[in-house]
């Protein structure tokens, strides 16, 4: 008697679980307005919607879907039957769901003319209608769907009374008037919407209809540190510095409008956009638009750009979900979020941007004043500190952010020059010294150690001189030999001491071919001497260090 009762309990729980599970069907197309916005990634759209649906308690996401997309981003309102289109399909698996694990298995079902794709879509639409009538699907999303092609599905949705939401004003109006479907949420137009804003709107509407909680915020999202965001902007700093230097070579005055635009707006805008997109990547293009508008308040201050980008990322999500909960249509939601948030952050940042610019100006003044030559030995100490700091993690934590703050107005950097001397060229000199005289002999490790050293040094020498970026190649040799280590510190200290005097004349940076790094500076002669000393001292010290073991081996051999 106990066994049948146990079986009955399990069946009852299974039935109750199935009844509590919500699965969604989706029908639609790239539509008229959506296709002109650049959001033509059908797979990305379906997966974004599926991912948001899974955040609803008891939801298994998209069960089945049919989505038609025209090639080339063309809108369906101006399409002909001979235009090329693709039918994307999501079908339920053998266990009755398509992708509750988090993945939405989108497949290309048909590619051909629009007429051919529509015929296939009409046949597949019958399956979705059956899924609705069999109660396997408990909600429907319509995205600019053709009501004639999807008539069976819409009839089934109306007969079963399931909630229907979506976007595309024309199609939703036709579905409601012709089929009397039960529209929920802020279903409406699709102009100026994105994949994410639509996905959130659909999900919130269905969660409300199901009376289930929906938590769009991800608790696991970790915001990056400002230093990592600033370092991610290095390509923009690199490009602006080179561009301004080339303009100076062609005789453009520093007050020229082209130069001023680069100096005042390029880098603060970059910092603002990168910060916003790094802290809130899920909001896609809306956070990009908002951050660009906000960045216009940050001229001449990359710190203000970082602050504005952070504020945008903070406010965008809250504004978006407030609009959704208040039932504001998707188009107006996007206008308020992408445009309104950008304007609000602009107004908040504009008054404080000059003060944040003063902060970075003070940092530049301290950096350059310390190397003015008024106190002998400061340059030597700075060079040694740079060499040491690169080994213990100070470079990424302190050195590189200061370099980028120095480059705020599009000029090169004094600490960038020190970086090239103490790290890049010292490393290159050590690698060259090892290639000239290898400390190991062919008998060591059966020749394997020699081959490894030669390969590493060749690569290190080539990358450091041509690209300014493989300082780590010297670390094993500095750790292996006290003499090489001392030579590295001497080369760093002496070459940096040679830079003292007029710091603005020797501004440069690493991450460049050596000749270009020299070309960036006003006083190319002084910079060349400093660079040569860094390379030569490191080279000679390594050669001497590598000759000592060989000399000791010869003495040992003679004594034997």
Task: Give a description of the structure.
The chain has helices at 2-20, 42-53, 114-133, 151-160, 169-179, 195-210, 226-232, 234-249, 257-279, 285-295, 302-325, 330-349, 353-369, 378-392, 394-406, 414-436, 448-467, 475-480, 482-497, 514-519, 524-559; strands spanning 22-29, 59-70, 84-90, 107-113, 139-143, 163-167, 182-183. It has 560 residues and is an alpha/beta fold. The protein folds into three domains: 12-210, Rossmann fold, CATH 3.40.50; 226-358, no CATH class; 370-559, no CATH class. A seven-stranded mixed beta sheet has the order 4-3-2-1-5-6-7, with helices on both faces. Strand 6, helix 5 and strand 7 (182-183) form a beta-alpha-beta unit. Helix 14 (378-392) packs across helix 19 (482-497). The longest helix has 36 residues, at 524-559. The termini are far apart. Mean pLDDT is 85; it is low at 13-19 and 555-560.
Number of spatially distinct domains: 3
Q: Which assembly state applies to the chains in this document? A: single chain
Named at the architecture level, the CATH assignment of the largest domain is 3-Layer(aba) Sandwich
Given the C-alpha coordinates, what overall shape results? elongated
Gyration radius, rounded: 32 Å
Q: In which range does the helix fraction lie? A: 55-70%
Name the beta content range. 5-15%
Number of helices: 21
N- and C-termini, Cα separation = 95 Å
Order of helix and strand elements from N to C terminus: HEHEEEHEHEHEHHHHHHHHHHHHHHHH
- CATH topology group of the largest domain: Rossmann fold
Structural class: alpha/beta
Average pLDDT metric = 85
Q: Which CATH class of the largest domain is shown?
A: Alpha Beta
Largest sheet: 7 strands, mixed
Spatial order of strands in the largest sheet: 4-3-2-1-5-6-7
Q: Give the total of beta strands.
A: 7
The unreliable regions are 13-19, 555-560
